[in-house]
Design a protein that fits this description.
Helix content is 38%, strand content 17%. It contains 14 helices and 17 strands. It has a seven-stranded mixed beta sheet, sandwiched between helices. It is globular.
């Protein structure tokens, strides 16, 4: 009897593409119960930027737990939370000249997004939110309302309202000037567009197909928001914590969003943690107006603090990520050039990369071939047409090259 098939809900998804039972993991490698080794180009959907069972982070968590450190604390003051806040201010915010209050909204990225949307509406007194084509912000109702994927939206079971999608960067393949449609609607009193409270955007759309917005597009969006009194929310849940190189993915544009959503790898060790960062003047919450039972998971505070101290007190990880990202980019471009008769496209930034196919079945088969050869990758995009590469940032050069070799062989096996 297969307990997963008989007892677990049909909603399970990743396990269908990787039909094995995993047992152990270390660094960039997972092992199933038979001992077979898999290179991980998935990294917990971006939750494991520092790899599986990172020994430095593991030691900090184990020592804390062995010392009977508090595990669960809601929003009570704890030494572990104080250490995280102090480290985050000193290592992340101050060197970047960023002034944010830190909110602990709950343990997941969707919690951070829900808090951001709720706060934007409270601050402005408006209801409407602007999101973008192919966006993904989470599976709760508020987050789904600003998500583009029709399959995911249909699961809500009710109308998803108070959000209006606008074209993301290059949605019209450069044929329409940036923000022409959005700006025209804002200026036209007959457009029917409700005055927006906020715009929410990913600088690189992960689930939407590894669509990377240009720095000038992001600056244009920030300027448009400022001129029209609209709050700018950057969802950095998947692309933050160094995934694109710098700690925040928006740093390349030199902008300062009003609100920033962080989760996934902010927990360091793969432990659940989310932060909503907000400019101090936006901190208009009443005590307890937005809360949650699991917004005080102290082992995650400990792992997050250690990750900041180990990886973000200098620029070594950032430079390494950018260099490895260029290596992946060259490999993907090489595949595109090797098959000129096949419609493929290399996409992405940093270590968030994608290989887009015209036919989603090809992308799916590439991932299946890779799995059989010992490499874990997922597909993304509206139809699953993009092979998505997101290895741990700490992956070794040899491991990265080995994974790219498996990818190349998998593509060749499908296209041949």
């Amino acid at each position: 009897m297969n307990i997963f098939e008989t007892l677990e809900s049909e909603v399970r998804s990743y396990c269908r593409g990787w039909p094995t039972t995993f047992d152990k993991a270390t660094g960039s490698l997972l092992y199933d119960e038979t001992g077979k080794e898999y290179l991980d180009f998935f990294a917990g959907a971006g939750s494991l930027n520092y790899g599986h069972n990172n020994p430095l982070l593991k030691r900090a968590v184990i020592d804390y737990m062995l010392a009977d450190g508090i595990t669960h604390s809601l929003d009570m003051h704890t030494a572990a939370k104080r250490d995280l806040l102090e480290s985050f201010a000193d290592i992340v915010l101050k060197p970047r000249d960023l002034d944010y209050k830190v909110m602990f909204p709950g343990p997941a990225g969707a919690n951070a997004v829900e808090a951001a949307l709720k706060l934007a509406r409270k601050v402005t007194g408006r209801e409407a939110i602007i999101n973008f084509t192919n966006a993904f912000h989470g599976m709760t109702l508020g987050a789904l309302s600003v998500t583009g994927n029709s399959m995911k939206r249909s699961g809500a079971g009710i109308p998803l309202v108070h959000a209006t999608p606008m074209p993301y960067d290059n949605y019209f393949d450069g044929q329409t000037p940036d923000f022409l449609f959005f700006e025209r609607l804002l200026a036209d009193s007959g457009s029917g567009l409700n005055e927006p409270a906020a715009v929410i955007v990913e600088t690189v759309q992960g689930e939407g197909g590894i669509n990377a917005a240009r720095a000038e597009w992001l600056r244009g969006l920030a300027d448009l928001c400022q001129r029209n009194g609209i709050l700018l929310i950057v969802d950095d849940v998947q692309m933050g914590c160094g995934r694109t190189g710098p700690f925040f993915s928006f740093e390349i544009a030199g902008i300062q969003p009003d609100i920033v959503c962080l989760s996934k790898s902010i927990g360091g060790y793969g432990l659940p943690l989310a932060l909503t960062l907000l400019k101090p003047e936006l901190d208009v919450w009443e005590p307890g107006e937005h809360n949650g039972t699991f917004r005080g998971i102290n082992p995650a505070f400990v792992a997050a603090t250690e990750a900041l101290k180990v990886y973000w007190q200098d620029d070594k990880l950032e430079k390494s990520t950018l260099a490895k990202g260029e290596q992946v980019g060259r490999a993907l471009t090489g595949l595109v050039e090797s098959y000129p008769d096949v419609q493929m496209r290399a996409k992405g930034r940093g270590l968030a990369r994608g290989l887009q196919f015209a036919d989603a079945e090809l992308a799916d088969q590439v991932c299946k071939n890779a799995f059989e050869a010992g490499l874990l990758m997922e597909t993304s995009g509206p139809d699953g047409e993009v092979v998505k590469l997101m290895p741990p940032l700490t992956i070794s050069d040899d491991e990265l090259e080995a994974g790219l070799s498996i990818l190349a062989a998998s593509v060749k096996g499908v296209l041949a």
